[in-house]
Specification:
The chain is built from twelve helices and ten strands. With 293 residues, the protein is of the alpha/beta class. α1 runs parallel beside α2, α1 packs across α7 and α9 packs antiparallel against α10.
Length: 293
């Protein structure tokens, strides 16, 4: 049995789909407040659902009973509920999950984290604490550190509106990132369960090629035949926002924007030599978005 925590999220639901397609027994942890349609989708995949919350240790112990492996993608950057915060969920909740899994005799634990970012970023401080706890827990572990998800960063949610031909670009827009699809991250998480090269490993993930935001815009312009209007957000403004933020969510959001403006290149050659994942390109993603797929 494989427990997926964060199962109603973008990556978690795709992990459940991939695992059930492989005929694996999947237990998807959902909240009592999770959207019924998302819970039903997990059931339609063939997953068993269990109600739990990272702030409720007893629910984690129930969820982990009889589980051979755990994959957790949960975080509180989106869809926060009352009482959610980085310390309670992203740090202590994930640590409690690790302890519950170890107590239940779980053999494998996969944690979807994030790449190293600016010092003082509340989200990353929580993830660093979880990574350190996991490494000392005594279970076979894999930490995945994916770069920017193209489905989120190249979407209207963050000011990239392909339908209307506009893009908000942080900084100069010239620093390169290896944009990655959430579907590929899910594929790496599933592969990590049995791939010997994932054993007790920390793996940086990115897409097939490093591209600057301005190069990404050019690819969307080519795919759509539409000239984009570009709004630049100066790095100085993001730095001021980060320094002046009093709310942990605002501070982390500003830190993420600074991370994207600075660029983050990932050489995927050694990883792809061990993991048979066909990475999604920004070209392919742009064409899908333009087609409305």
């Amino acid at each position: 049995m494989i427990l997926v925590v964060g199962a109603t999220g973008l990556v978690g639901s795709e992990i459940c789909r991939l695992l059930t397609e492989k005929g694996k027994d999947v237990r998807a942890m959902v909240r009592a407040t999770s959207a019924p349609a998302k819970v039903q989708q997990l059931k339609d995949f063939g997953a068993e659902t269990v109600v739990g919350d990272l702030k409720d240790q007893a629910s984690l112990e129930r969820a982990c009973r009889g589980v051979d492996a755990v994959i957790t993608t949960a975080n509180t950057m989106h869809g926060r509920m009352e009482g959610d915060c980085f310390d309670a969920v992203d740090r202590q909740g994930q640590i409690d999950l690790i302890d519950a899994a170890k107590h239940a005799g779980t053999k494998k634990f996969v944690f979807v984290s994030a790449p190293a970012m600016k010092d003082g970023l509340p989200l990353m401080e929580a993830k660093d604490a979880v990574e350190n706890h996991l490494k000392s827990a005594g279970m076979d572990y894999t930490v995945l550190k994916p770069s920017c998800f193209m489905e989120i960063w190249l979407s209207p949610m963050l000011g990239f509106d392909a339908a209307n031909g506009s893009a908000r670009v942080c900084g100069t827009g010239e620093n390169k990132l290896n944009w990655i699809s959430y579907r590929d991250v899910a594929g790496f998480a599933v592969e990590s369960l049995e791939n010997p090269d994932a054993r007790n490993a920390v793996i940086e993930l990115g897409g097939p090629e490093p591209l600057s935001p301005l190069e990404v815009v050019a690819k969307f312009e080519s795919a759509s035949g539409k000239k984009f209007q570009i709004e630049h957000v100066p790095e100085e403004a993001l730095t001021q926002q980060f320094s002046g933020a009093t709310d942990e969510l605002q501070k982390s959001f500003a830190g993420l924007m600074l991370f994207s403006s600075g660029g983050h290149e990932v050489d995927m050659t050694p990883v792809l030599a061990s993991f048979p994942i066909e990475l999604t390109s920004v070209d392919d993603f742009a064409k899908r978005v333009v087609r409305g797929d």
